[in-house]
Structures are given as C-alpha cells and as structure tokens.
Amino acid sequence: MKGRQKGVALLVVLLILALMVTVAATIAERNGRTYLRTAAQLQQQQAKWYGVAAEALAGKILQRDRLDLPNKTHLAQNWAQEDRRFPVEGGELQGQIVDGQACFNLNAINQGAGEQTDTPYPAKVFLQLLNNLGEEPLHSEQVTAALRDWIDSDSEPGINGAEDDVYMALEQLYLPANQPMQDVSELRMVYGVDAALYQRLLPYVCALPTQTLLLNINTLRTAQGPLLAALFLAELSPQEAEQLLQQRPREGWDSVAEFLAQPSLEDIETTTLRPMLAVNSDFFLANFSVLMGDNHFSQHSLLQKAGNNFQVVQRKYGLSMMVTP
Question: Locate the T2SS protein K first SAM-like domain: which residues (predicted)?
C-alpha cells in the first residue's frame, strides 16, 4: 500500500515538473518573440531616421547644384549620381535622386480642357505615347479617355471614357477617384490599364501635385525616346527622338530655343509644344533604401524648390522583410 502511494506521489511530482517545464518553455518562447519584435521595431525606427537624414542630405545636394547653376538642370550635376551607398551603424543606406519633371505628369492630362473644345494637348501626348509603346490605336483612345475621366471632377463620361457605371460593372467593384492622382500606382486602377501596360508605362509617367505638364529636355534618359517623340505627336519618331537625346550636350541645352533649333526639328510646328518644355526642374524624387539585419526599409520623398531651398511635399514609406538565401 505504501509502495503504491509512493508511486502515485512520484507520478504527481513528474506531472507537476512537466507542467512547470511547459510553462517555462512557453514563457521563454513568448519572451523571445517579444524581444525579436522589439528589436525589429527599433531597427525600423532607426532606419526611418536614417531615411529622414538622407532626405535632408538630398535637399542640400539639390540646393548646392541649384546655387551653382540656377537656370539649368542636367544629368552631369551631382544630384544625378547613381547608386549612392553609405554605411550606417547596423546596416547600409542606398539612395538615388531622379528628376520629377523627366516624365509625363498624369495629373496634367486635362490641362487646358476648359479653354478649348478640342482634345487638350497633354491628352494627345499621352495618346501618342501609348501608340509609341505599341498599343492598338482604339485601345489607346479608350485608356486616354478613361484616364481623363478618372482625374476630372465630374461623373459624366467622355467619348470612349469610363465613369461610375463602368467600374461598378467590374468583378471587383470600385469607383473612379474624380480627382488628381496621389500616386502613380493609381494608374493601375484606370479602366483598360492591365498589368502589362502599367509596367510599360512606368518609366515614362509620374503623378506630381500639380496639373501642369512641363518636361525637362535635359534630364530625359535616352531610353525615354518614346516620351520625347510623343511631345511632337506624329511629327517625330521614337528612333529620331533617341538620336536627339544621344546627341545632347553633356551639360544639356542652355534653352528650349536651342533644343528646338536642332536640324531634325526645324520644320516642325512647335507653338503648342514650346510652353511644355523646360531646361530646369523644380520637382525631384529621392528614393532611399535602408538595410538593417533582415529588415528592408524604403522611403520615397518628393522635394520641390521653394526659394533657394528644397522642401519635402510628399513622403511615402515601404517596409518589407528580406528573405535571406
């Protein structure tokens, strides 16, 4: 009888010990997760401040280049240096500054629409850009009209356009914004813009907080020939536009007049086009990526010239976990 009681007591002790081990393991696991979560949050916060510091540095670089050359922005300046890398405590920061006016501003597509009955010039440019990228003419017209309806403030569809009734008939229901785009990614939501077309358009378009079309001919890349050609509508081919950009002086053209005086452009009517061109830029996009441990922090800052300085008018963040091989 006593032996049986001892056996039961031993079994109880073992059960209690197993329970204690289980509780201890659970507490340790929870503490470990809390520690990792806290460490990740601290890394993210530190990376964010690195991004803010890099943003301030970008503003100073742009300010210095502007003070050195007030009336011209070109790709030989310090701001245009690619693949900047800076070691930081616990990781690395990468940064790049790109001209915010070396692209077609989607928010300007209706510029001048209230002043004329004809299709506004920026809409013609976007239509021509689609054609230059290989879209079927009818589809190009539909996408252009849908984009105009997406950005205008009314709910009345234009010819070949798309408003509430079109989007409410889709499998995934939503409504058009009827306001300027806050981000270029909104283009993917415009009726007729599929993933493939969106990817083809990305190197040529942007969404600035202004409804004015103004492109800097000194900062367009050679690969953006289709966009430069679109500005001349059907008067210039993408190949001819690329040749123009290849022949551009290292420090760019000194004026729009000098650019339009190029032999291949002399016979083209440029009265409508001329106000849309510039050799200087006031908008710049600074892209930063901070890698700390397994955390990858991304920041995108839009800077605008304000007096002799550049101030941040828009800031966006992207955060994802890096998968290590």
Answer: 102-210
Asked whether 299 and 48 are in contact (CB, 8 A), the reply is yes
CA distance 71 to 117: 35
CA angle 48, 53, 59 (to 5 degrees): 125
Which residues in 128-139 are b (16+ Cβ under 10 Å) and which e? bbbbbbebeeee
Q: Which residues contact 13 (CB under 8 A, 6 or more apart)?
A: none
pLDDT in tens, 167-220: 999 989 999 999 999 999 999 999 999 999 999 999 999 999 999 999 999 999
CB 290 within 8 A of CB 59: no
State in Å, rounded, how far the first CA of the chain is from the last one. 62
Q: What six digits make up the tokens of 270?
A: 């440029």
- Backbone phi and psi for residue 18, each to the nearest 5 degrees, phi listed first: -60, -40
Q: Are 99 and 284 in contact (CB under 8 A)?
A: yes
What's the residue count for the chain? 325
Name the residue type at position 177. Answer: A
- pLDDT for 110-161, tens place per residue? 998 776 568 999 999 999 999 999 999 999 999 999 999 999 999 889 899 9
